[in-house]
Amino acid sequence: MPQFFEGGRVICIAPRMVKRIFVHSVVLSVLSWSVAAGAQSVESSESWARFNSAFQKGDFSAIETQYASLLASAKRSPRGVFLAETYAIFWPLASCDKSETAGDDPPKRPYLELRVECWNAMEAKMNDWSRAYPVSTLPTVGLSEINLARAQSPELRWSEGAKAQDEYAERARKTLEEVPFERRTVTLYATLIRIATLQGWGAKRFGVLLAEAASKFPNHSRIYRLATVHHLPKNGGSAAEIEHLAQFAVDKSRDQDGQSMYAHVYDEVMFGQGWLWDSAQMKTYLSWTKMRAGLSDIYRRFPDKWNLNRFAQHACLADDLVTLTALLAQIGSEAQPVADDGWMAGELLRCRKKLATPQSGDPTLTASAQ
């Protein structure tokens, strides 16, 4: 039975309940992907800006043209992320999380009322888009994402109950599964994998979905990162499942990316379930040799400063002081990684202190160095 830590205690929970309790962990893991995978590069931010501008104007033709171009070009950001992966159809939904009366005390209108109103307006616009472009997958994914947002809303759960949320999640799933294989995009698979995690799909059912997604988009790291979230122990998975996924991802993507996907998978583990880096279970499966090779492949192919900093942070976690010394020398004397990631600067500063006192016994730096 899956376990997790709470206040130093180990709690055992039934798999189905794990899915329920960690709904927000799934969301946070997906959001952390945008940081971990470098989705906030200048190019992808510009892509988002163009999408939002066109969407607000109802210029669906411009969106369709841009997305088709990204898919056809297979262009990547300086950090190695396919720009088509970052073309998030659900991005406008972020506006529904911001209350118009957030500064009012007391608020003029209930927060849930504002969100429902926003979702409904968004749904109407997506339906307009779908009628204008009936064979496009983008508005279909958008409609699914709206129902997924409803299914993940704690306020709506309190208001309508768990059964209603289950129905929203099921509606989101059916919307996507009706799309023929030849029209399924990486954006569609990303949303469907998140739905699978929310609904707690079993190994066989999820394996079919992952195999299909990887057959169409074998070099897209987002597919494997979201699959990693599905396999996290806190979501009912295991370290063995994660290692199997990492090997699967490498086998599928080796031609273009070498060992990179091994690093992508375990980088997601660090964000999604960081305590595993200190567990005996993770030490049994994580190979630092493979992880180092993956990080090296990422940086060699995409020599971005963020990728270099991430490599150094993992070397620090693995207690690989030789690699860490070389990487920190390459980074330079200042712990200033990139403007959009001040957290990384603090991590690298901690690693420099670790290097200065290698016998400090820092319990957070005990990952396997196999």
The percent of residues in helical segments reads: 55-70%
Low-confidence stretches: 1-40, 360-370
Largest sheet: 2 strands, antiparallel
Q: Report Rg.
A: 21 Å
Per DSSP E runs of 2 or more residues, the count of β-strands stands at: 2
Q: Structural class, judged by helices and strands?
A: mainly alpha
Tell me the β content.
under 5%
List keywords for this structure.
about 65% helix; mainly alpha; two-stranded antiparallel sheet; about 375 residues; 19 helices; disordered N terminus; single chain; globular; about 0% strand
Word description of this protein:
This protein is mostly helical. The protein has 19 helices and two strands. A two-stranded antiparallel sheet has the order 1-2. The N terminus and C terminus are likely disordered.
Topology of this structure?
Elements: E1 3-6, E2 9-12, H1 15-21, H2 23-36, H3 42-57, H4 60-73, H5 83-86, H6 111-132, H7 138-151, H8 154-160, H9 162-177, H10 186-199, H11 203-216, H12 221-231, H13 239-257, H14 260-272, H15 280-285, H16 288-301, H17 305-317, H18 321-331, H19 342-356
Antiparallel strand pairs: 1-2
Helix pairs in contact: 2-12, 2-14, 3-4, 6-7, 7-9, 7-10, 8-9, 9-10, 10-11, 10-12, 12-13, 12-14, 13-14, 14-16, 16-17, 17-18, 17-19, 18-19
